[in-house]
Amino acid sequence: MAELSPYALRLALYAVLMLLFGRMLFVRPGLPRGVSLTLTVIALVLVITDAVTRLSGVLGISPADIDGETASWFLAGTPVGEAGLLRILGVLAMLPLLAINRPVQGLRRLALLALSASALASLSWNGHAAAGDGFGGTLRLGAGMLHLLAAGAWVGAIAAILQLALRPQGPRLRERTRELWQAAHSFAVPGTIIVATLAMTGTYTYVDLGGSVQNLTGTAHGRWLMIKLGLVGGMLGLAALHRWRLVPALAVSIRGGWQPRPLRSLRHSLACEAVLALLVLACVAVLGTLDPVA
Hints:
Order of helices and strands: HHHHHHHHHHH
Number of strands: 0
Helix content: over 70%
Strand content: under 5%
Shape: globular
Oligomer: single chain
Mean pLDDT: 85
Number of domains: 2
Low-confidence stretches: none
């Protein structure tokens, strides 16, 4: 794991922590703990690997040469290390809560939601959002954290609705399709809020870092950002298709004579949106390593 490329490691870290947070946020009460427990174990491996990789890169030494004193200095004496320690402790604290052999709900779910949100928000210290001092730096960092949480909410919603869409229907076809419709239909308002939050925080951060329209075509960061925005535009197009065409068509199918086509169309569209979300995160993994103005 320690030999993952920096981009692959960043992509995996963002994807898993967003899925953890989004799953706790959007999957219905009483969710089975198995998937979340597996994601948490994977997240623990990734956050430890990320901390070791960053310390190794800072000092220019092999991970095998890191001793306890050096690790303590990094985790307790640097902002990036403290954020990494917060992630590690947050993910560790999730394990015993998920180890309880009961559906996740109530106060336990709220605690898991808070811990997963903290772990995800701490990734702000891994990118440009942490590059600032004073009040302006605090605003930038806050915008970065809010951007991550909104993105995690969107990724989690896609995963939750897709999970409902891909369930074996069997004899409960009509009931399970109605559950899918309710989940997709109820996401309309939260989805609008999430998109607005992403747009505002993303624009603020880019401008605050010195980005401009000219930089969108004149720098590597700008070109990658344009690719990311194009992919996000595709996700927005699919979201609009869900809201105005596919979800209403599913409702008509439930109320009237059953037709399999609306369910199949929604499944395919959700799968495409999930692929686009993964490609957006791949762009984010690259963007965090590039200078917005160079």
